[in-house]
Amino acid sequence: MRNMLFVLLAVCLSAGCKERYIPCDPQAEPQVAQLYGRLAQLRDRGVMIGHQDDLMYGHAWEYEEGRSDIMEVCGSYPAVMGFDLGGLELGDSCNLDGVPFEKMRQAAFMADEMGCVITFSWHMRNPVTGGSSWDLSGGNVVREILPGGSCHEQYRGWMDKLADFMKSLKDAQGDCIPVVFRPYHENTGGAFWWGALSCQPEDYKRLWQWTVEYMFTSGVHNMLYAYSTDIFWSEEEYMLRYPGDEWVDIMGWDAYHRPQDWDFLKGMADMARTVGNLAMEHHKIAALTETGLESVFLDNWWTEYLLPSVRGNGLSWVLLWRNSQEMENHFFAPFKGHSSEEDFRRMVAEEDILVVNDIM
Length: 360
Ligand code: BMA
Fold this sequence. Notes:
About 40% of the residues lie in helices and about 15% in strands. The protein is an alpha/beta fold. Helix 7 links the parallel strand 6 (about 180) and strand 7. Helix 10 runs parallel beside helix 11 (about 340-350). The N and C termini lie far apart (about 45 Å). Bound molecules: beta-D-mannopyranose. Beta-D-mannopyranose binds near residues 123 and 321. Beta-D-mannopyranose binds near residues 86, 96, 97 and 321.
């Protein structure tokens, strides 16, 4: 009998261990481990809806406290809030889309209070040329910023700015706000200086590992790390630049619906299955880290395209890109009065689609 109990206990414990998600930062704050565990639990309930810059501005408005296009359409804020740090590296007061970092910090505070998951991307400048993220000139930029490269010292300065910003994210009790950090995104694409056209997989991996290590040694311990590719065609392509399990917490990918370029439904089914399975094998969390159909010109896009693409593969969240306040056609989420709003509500009403009201 006693033996049986021991066996039972051992089985339960090992099952428990298997279920535990441990952040790659060995010194992660308890809030980060909590967030990781919460992501795993929520993933078993459904897919969270996220939106970039949701609290900052929307279609034809900006900086109105509490306002959100998603909220106005479905009565709840999204469950995931995305922000972008582009511009932080030079000490700018606003990011590349004009969002003041101070307001971003306040929005992160609000989002954390509401129980949202917070994620940061970084459209940082080209450190060699001073041009934008999309500037592919300057030679092998990734090598120039790694140790031994001509811009390494300058790049450390950029990383120090990141460290200061992350350490400044505090809740009302003065505890850290845990966030997901998603640098060097869309690495299988060619758009950015860290992309597939501009650096070798080995250089990319070194940059990733160096960056994460630099954050650890700078005392930044409030982050989970999200790896994200652009659209990809095979598991090999997805994994080509993967820096290793000890440097990553979330496995994601970005994929926009551009009907003239690729078959969204078929491609998404393949990519979601691949990332979902890989995350399971590597014991990570999977997410569709950016998506959308620019200007949502298909009224049934939410239930006919997005929903079948994201459900059933163990994805934790999907992040819709921003609703620009100034570029009329640059929006990826519905807003009050948009012709797809009814369909968006239909999607959100599904049991396995989660907004913040579903996860509080
Ligand atoms: C892109 C566009 C740009 C923006 C950038 C960073 O996809 O939305 O207008 O500057 O993201 O947010």
